[in-house]
């Protein structure tokens, strides 16, 4: 049988497209227009239209005004850093709820999934520093050890100076939302026309001022957010498509089904001077638990390294850990603990295995473009303590600012993760189109715990932010009710 090359196969032509029109629409908050992180800090936006919502082409726009009374430098999360909690609701029903959303994005997802070219774009969209750009800065002002790790104009992940945004200055953010239903990884258009008069509600809780970055002095007041819009990309189609949706809904017991990947946050605590095996409970009940992501850091800010001057949101430490693994029910995953070898200075040579295990969670272990912006300069370089600011330059503790014209300090990342999927994830972390390929902890009420073997003491208590990553199935019934199974 001969095969005709596509270039001369004139029988293969594009099919006729469904008649459609794309348009952009702004959805404004329903509970006011001006918000402050220290007072009126919850923003609610209703999204409703007689059209499909293309979540991949939609984003949140908002303006930050620095009303803290001090100059401000933004953390690596940029615009995502100001969202402490993100909820998606309909008629009071919670469809998605992520606490510490800013920590998830700043310390885990953006460092691991966004490469240097994305950092370049985010320098415009969110104020992330790129190419060591800063007032008074220029090329070649990194420390010698960091310069050796960099090529061309790419300067890894230098921190912002504390005067990036002047007192009473402004910055406009345009960011995609990250969640299973309205996130940028939702593969299907969301049929808003089937929801009737019950809109989807986006609820945003603003983060405290001290979490979004660093300041030129003690921040005495909150920052202000206004000019907020959910910029929705809508697709309008003819009545025959709506009729087709109703037919699909009827053939599926009255349900139109979508799917996505969601996150739930849990907190664990490790006491000061803890040694040996530490077991942190993760009380998650999910039908398809895909992975567990976590990051640890001290919340104890002693003088002179107060929270005003350190980038704590994106920061992660390596716990001085020997090994770590999950326990689900009576089963250990992986059966042989992940060998971290972070203790006693071994982190300089033993970081490869934890990083590859993290890469499995995102389906990028065999990728040719690396794992985000992770490098030897910024990954697992310190323990979890918040060291005094003077020790940062020597390579210990939370990062401080990189002022223009001086040696840059890199962000310090240490996201860790354990993959639980039977099928290799796709490019966005989904299980190659296979739903519910993770572990079912709901049906048998399996207990989940994260076990970390610590070899050397941490000077202060450590807070561990843990995120259960799982498959969600959403459905819209004939009454327009949106519900979720997780």
Basic shape: globular
Instruction: Tell me the Rg in angstroms.
Output: 23 Å
At CATH level 3, the topology is: Adenovirus Type 2 Hexon, domain 4
Largest sheet: 6 strands, antiparallel
- Report the helical percentage: 10-25%
**Overall mean confidence score, pLDDT:** 85
Total of DSSP H or I helical runs spanning 4+ residues: 6
Beta-strand percent range: 25-35%
- The class by helix and strand makeup works out as mainly beta
N- to C-terminal separation?
48 Å
Number of strands: 21
How many discrete domains?
1
Oligomer state of the chains in this structure: single chain
CATH architecture: Distorted Sandwich
What is the CATH level 1 assignment?
Answer: Mainly Beta
Instruction: List the uncertain runs.
Output: 134-141, 148-154, 427-432
CATH evolutionary superfamily: Adenovirus Type 2 Hexon, domain 4
Q: Secondary-structure element order, as H and E? A: EEEEEEEHHHEEEEEHEEEEEHHEEEE
Could you please describe the fold and organization of this structure?
With 486 residues, this protein is mostly beta strands. The protein has one domain (21-485): Adenovirus Type 2 Hexon, domain 4 (Distorted Sandwich), CATH 2.70.9. Strands 1, 2, 4, 8, 9 and 12 form a six-stranded antiparallel β-sheet that branches. Strands 13, 15, 18, 20 and 21 form a five-stranded antiparallel β-sheet that branches. It has six helices and 21 strands. It has helices spanning 101-113, 116-125, 144-147, 239-251, 352-360, 389-392; strands spanning 20-27, 34-36, 42-47, 52-65, 72-74, 83-90, 93-99, 170-175, 190-191, 200-206, 213-215, 224-237, 256-270, 276-281, 289-298, 321-328, 331-339, 416-419, 448-454, 462-476, 482-485.
């Amino acid at each position: 049988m001969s095969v005709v090359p596509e270039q001369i196969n004139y029988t293969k032509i594009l099919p006729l497209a469904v008649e459609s029109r794309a348009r952009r629409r702004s959805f404004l908050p329903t509970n006011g227009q001006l918000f402050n992180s220290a007072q009126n800090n919850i923003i609610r936006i209703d999204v409703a239209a007689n059209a499909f919502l293309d979540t991949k082409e939609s984003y949140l726009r908002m303006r930050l005004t620095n009303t803290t009374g001090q100059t401000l430098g933004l953390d690596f999360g940029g615009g995502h850093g100001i969202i402490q909690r993100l909820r998606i609701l309909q008629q009071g029903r919670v469809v998605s709820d992520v606490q510490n959303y800013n920590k998830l994005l700043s310390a885990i997802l953006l460092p691991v999934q966004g490469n240097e070219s994305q950092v370049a774009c985010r320098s415009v969209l969110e104020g992330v520093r790129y190419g060591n750009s800063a007032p008074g800065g220029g090329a070649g002002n990194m420390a010698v050890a960091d310069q050796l790790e960099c090529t061309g104009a790419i300067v890894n992940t230098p921190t912002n100076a504390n005067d990036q945004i002047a007192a009473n200055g402004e910055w406009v953010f345009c960011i995609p939302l990250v969640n299973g239903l309205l996130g940028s990884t939702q593969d299907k258009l969301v049929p808003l026309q089937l929801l009737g008069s019950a809109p989807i509600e986006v609820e945003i809780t603003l983060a405290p001022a001290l979490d979004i970055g660093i300041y030129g002095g003690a921040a005495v007041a909150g920052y202000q957010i206004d000019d907020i819009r959910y910029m929705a990309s809508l697709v309008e189609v003819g009545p025959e498509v709506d009729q087709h949706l109703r037919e699909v809904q009827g053939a599926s017991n009255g349900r139109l089904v979508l799917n996505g990947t969601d996150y739930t946050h849990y907190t664990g605590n490790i006491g000061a001077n803890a040694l040996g095996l530490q077991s942190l409970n993760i009380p998650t009940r999910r039908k398809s638990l895909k992975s567990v992501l976590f990051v640890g850091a001290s919340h104890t800010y002693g003088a002179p390294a107060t929270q005003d001057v350190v980038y704590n949101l994106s920061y992660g430490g390596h716990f001085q850990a020997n090994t770590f693994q999950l326990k689900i029910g009576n089963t250990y995953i992986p059966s042989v603990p992940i060998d971290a070898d972070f203790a006693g200075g071994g982190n300089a040579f033993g970081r490869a295995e934890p990083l590859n295990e993290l890469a499995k969670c995102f389906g990028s272990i065999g990728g040719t473009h690396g794992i985000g912006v992770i490098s030897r300069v910024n990954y697992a370089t310190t323990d979890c303590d918040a060291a005094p600011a003077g020790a940062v330059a020597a390579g210990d503790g939370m990062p401080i600012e990189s002022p223009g014209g001086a040696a840059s300090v890199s962000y310090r990342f240490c996201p860790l993760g354990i993959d639980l999927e039977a099928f290799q994830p796709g490019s966005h972390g989904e299980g190659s189109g296979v739903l519910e390929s993770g572990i079912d902890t709901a049906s048998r009420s399996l207990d989940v715990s994260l076990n970390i073997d610590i070899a050397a003491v941490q000077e202060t208590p450590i807070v561990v932010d843990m995120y259960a990553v799982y498959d969600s199935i959403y459905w819209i019934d004939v009454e327009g009710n949106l519900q979720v199974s997780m």
